[in-house]
Design brief:
Length: 230
């Protein structure tokens, strides 16, 4: 199988989940003692978060593009970015590599389209909810995308950055997210995309009142499938 290059650390909490799912998927597909050949480049999230807050996406793109190129130079045969938000600079990454790049937006759109759902709610960081990069991937499939109201967007974002990236999982936040999902459903959503790789630390897709699309798991499984399809 191809060697996977994983750009991680944004945050490392969700990158650890990616690593586990990649290896579980390869084990389940190949059996025996098989595991995934993975090169992980785990960035310092404080540096990335500072660029996010400053809105300096050009510098962020250069940073991630440089690290993606290093992964390819180190032997990665397929590259993936273990975060939804930083797919905002996916073009800067793909410009620096010649190997396949597995885009989380394509994976999410494939899953929603396959479900038959046509109106979807979107949870994520405020960057993901307010910038078009993930919405565009869903809308391009003819899907209607609903994002939370401003107050709920702030709640969802703050829980991610103040709690989940630090490995803090609070029942009060779980209940608050359930309320946000309820309001998305009331606005017409028939399902919800968990569009931040940390959200799955808090929200169990099996427990939501409408179908939930866990981008971390879906993305990791898709990466493993690309790597296995040599």
């Amino acid at each position: 199988m191809r060697t996977i290059g994983l750009l991680g650390g944004m945050s490392w909490e969700s990158t650890a989940v990616y690593y586990r799912i990649l290896n579980e998927t390869v084990r389940d597909q190949l059996g025996g003692l098989h595991s995934a050949p993975v090169i992980v480049d785990s960035l310092d999230f404080a540096e990335v978060a500072a660029l996010q807050s400053a809105g300096d996406w050009e510098a962020a793109g250069r940073l991630l593009g440089d690290h993606a190129a290093r992964l390819e130079q180190a032997g990665a045969e397929v590259v993936a970015l273990a975060t939804n938000t930083m797919h905002l600079v996916a073009d800067a990454i793909t410009a620096r590599i010649s190997v396949p790049f597995v885009h989380i937006g394509d994976v999410a759109a494939d899953a929603v389209e396959a479900s038959g759902i046509t109106t979807i709610g979107l949870l994520g960081t405020r960057f993901t909810m307010e910038q078009p990069f993930l919405v565009d991937h869903l809308s391009a499939r003819g899907l209607r995308v609903i994002v939370p109201a401003a107050e709920d967007r702030a709640l969802v974002h703050d829980v991610i950055y103040d709690e989940l990236v630090h490995g803090i999982v609070r029942e009060s936040s779980r209940l608050a997210y359930a309320g946000v999902i309820d309001r998305l459903v009331a606005a017409g959503a028939d399902g919800v995309v968990l569009g931040c790789t940390e959200i799955e630390l808090l929200v169990d897709p099996a427990s939501t009142r409408v179908p939930a699309f866990p981008t971390t798991r879906l993305h990791a499984e898709a990466i493993a499938s690309v790597a296995l399809a040599r």
